[in-house]
Specification:
Length: 615
């Protein structure tokens, strides 16, 4: 895993060096910056050595120096692509570098290259002959890619703070980006915290014509649920068999490494499956890692130990003391390039640090919850639909008022927290339910926080677009589309990328293997969420290899007691530091929470992160 940066147009070698320098945590093993002052093009790279340690340095060039690339990620089918390209007459210099496959692949297939790749990536290829830059981001956005345009300069980087180092770029706060941050708890692509900066969405390419300085984006892939043709008549055992085969294949592909590799193991379904297949593919005991919590409502460490013993991993588990965790939060927030409100970044950070002491690469279970309907809101859809049909507006508002008066609980995902969130979402159209359920603030509160709130259709444009883009009409399908296209890319994968890169650890997600994904998206929703059971088919498929009580136990999640931290003063939100938002609203949220009159943890945590992020 690496950090990349570059620009064309206005700028100097010193700008490029400064951009790359702040990405050192992403690539501590080496640095190289290339700059052509005549053509005003620069490519920068920080390397975390994983594959082909001797020959994989970047920027990498073809033998004729016509194509150069700076690349962050891993291409898991690079051996197959290399063999294909060699059969077409391409001659490779490196022994087994996946980076060189990108150069020859681009020469052979041009902008169709990303469609051939199985992996995670963000890269920029400089084509001297065509006089253009070609950038691409992987299908799900596992690897970040920011870019900025201004008069005379186009720049790109793995992190927002790297762009801030370029002397020719200026940045102004995006009010729309801020409002979306408090609507979702993260800033969805292509938006960022600045008006001048965009995130290239997952599944997109970007081309810069260096002569005209025109920028063109194009979508090469989109996650769309299949119309369910032949697979609808396939018997369940056959589905399970194919799912086991594809998941095992995806894990084995991601065992590719020239450095030590391990697995994250929470004891849940997803990570337990990864641990099983990783151990099955290894001739020695695989290292597994988990984080336990001193508070019972957050702790899953005993389940992780049981699974490690069952599959044969060498397991390591550290207990997280909540007092220590709250002390780490400022350190983590200060290293974030862009605010994101998922508080589970704290244990994820500690898990990554724990793993990095023994390995350089770790496999995780990210993506399974989104692809297989693993979240609690899927259970809420049916009663929510019935409630929405039967409850009149006045009755709904009365019930919300009554529920707001219930005693406040600060335990992880308490019942009162879930009920109040559910009722808040049901105040709006169905295509907004998921976003409002998950967001730190609802539309009414955002209207109180900002002097000029965005219209609902603009504030939640991404959620509406993904809901409407689903070709199926069932709410489970549309919710799957929302989680996979929006929540996975802009929350879950961002959290894992930032937390792991703070420790220079590469994390891989086998569930996002494109062959596996193309199978999963053809499975009807009734076999993902079935009779109240989340991840139904995945659990059924894993019954031959994992204990029953692991597969069918209650899901915990990776929560943090942030409500208590905020109440007890471990984290302090300053209403005066409101970024142009209404201070009276922030003060009221703080006062209500401290008085135990309301659970405002979500907003206050997001506000605290915004106030304490790197600037």
């Amino acid at each position: 895993m690496c950090g990349i940066a570059g620009f064309c147009g206005a700028g100097t070698l010193q700008d490029l060096e400064a951009m790359a320098q702040v990405l050192t945590h992403r690539g501590p093993d080496g640095a190289n910056n290339w700059f052509d002052p005549e053509r005003a093009v620069g490519l920068g790279h920080r390397r975390l050595s994983i594959v082909d340690l001797a020959d994989g340095s970047q920027p990498m060039w073809t033998s004729d120096a016509q194509l150069g690339v700076t690349f962050n990620g891993e291409i898991y089918n690079h051996r197959e692509l290399r063999a294909d390209l060699q059969s077409r007459g391409h001659r490779f210099i490196t022994d087994h570098s996946d980076t060189e496959v990108l150069l020859h692949g681009y020469r052979e297939w041009g902008e169709a290259l990303p469609e051939k790749l199985n992996g995670m990536w963000a890269f920029a290829i400089y084509d001297r002959k065509a006089n253009q830059l070609f950038l691409s981001r992987d299908r799900f956005g596992q690897k970040p890619l920011f870019y900025a345009e201004s008069a005379g300069c186009f720049a790109f980087a793995s992190e927002l703070n790297a762009l801030e180092q370029h002397s020719s770029l200026t940045f102004t706060q995006s009010v729309a980006g801020l409002q979306k941050y408090f609507a979702y708890g993260y800033i969805p692509a292509p938006h960022t915290l600045y008006r001048e900066v965009r995130k290239l969405p997952g599944g997109y390419n970007l081309t810069v014509d260096l002569e005209s300085r025109t920028v063109r984006t194009s979508q090469y892939w989109e996650y769309i649920l299949d119309p369910f043709t032949e697979i609808s008549h396939k018997p369940e055992p056959a589905w399970c068999e194919e799912l086991r085969h594809l998941l095992g294949q995806a894990v084995e592909r991601r065992m590719m490494s020239d450095v030590p590799l391990g697995v994250f193991l929470s004891g849940g379904v997803d990570s337990s499956a990864i641990a099983h297949y990783a151990q099955a593919a290894s001739s020695t005991a695989v290292h597994s890692f988990s984080i336990g919590f001193e508070e019972a409502s957050f702790d899953e460490s005993e389940y992780a130990r049981q699974v490690a013993e069952h599959v044969g991993c060498t397991h390591r588990s550290d207990i997280l003391h909540m007092g220590n965790a709250s002390g780490l939060a400022p350190k983590i927030a200060s290293r974030l390039d862009e605010p994101m409100g998922d508080s589970s970044i704290v244990p994820t950070y500690l898990l990554c640090g724990n793993a990095r002491e023994a390995v350089t690469v770790a496999l995780g279970g990210d993506g399974a919850d989104e692809l297989f309907a693993g979240y609690d809101p899927f259970k809420a859809l049916r009663p929510a639909r019935l409630y929405d049909r039967m409850m009149p507006g006045k009755g709904h508002e009365l019930l919300r008022t009554v529920m707001a008066a219930l005693p406040v609980s600060h335990t992880n995902m308490s019942l009162d927290f879930k009920i109040k969130r559910t009722l808040r979402g049901l105040s709006y159209p169905r295509n907004l339910w998921n976003a409002v359920w998950l967001g730190p603030l609802g539309p009414v509160e955002i209207g109180e926080l900002f002097d000029k709130p965005l219209p609902l259709t603009e504030l939640y444009a991404e959620a509406i677009a993904h809901w409407d883009a689903c070709p199926q009409e069932h709410m489970v399908d549309k919710t799957l589309q929302f989680y996979t296209k929006l929540y996975l890319q802009d929350d879950i994968l961002v959290k894992v990328d930032r937390a792991s890169m703070m420790h220079s650890l590469e994390v891989r997600a086998p569930f996002l293997d494109i062959d596996l994904v193309n199978f999963i998206r053809r499975i009807p929703h009734a076999w993902k969420y079935r009779n109240g059971e989340t991840k139904y088919l995945l659990k059924r498929a894993l019954e031959p290899v994992l204990p029953h009580d692991i597969l069918y136990r209650a899901k915990h999640g990776f929560g943090m007691p942030i409500a208590r931290w905020l109440r007890d003063g471990a984290l302090i939100v300053d209403p005066a530091n409101s970024f142009g938002m209404r201070q009276d609203f922030v003060q009221r949220q703080v006062s209500e929470h401290l008085a135990h009159n309301a659970d405002n943890r979500a907003f206050l945590w997001n506000m605290w992160v915004l106030q304490n992020r790197r600037r």
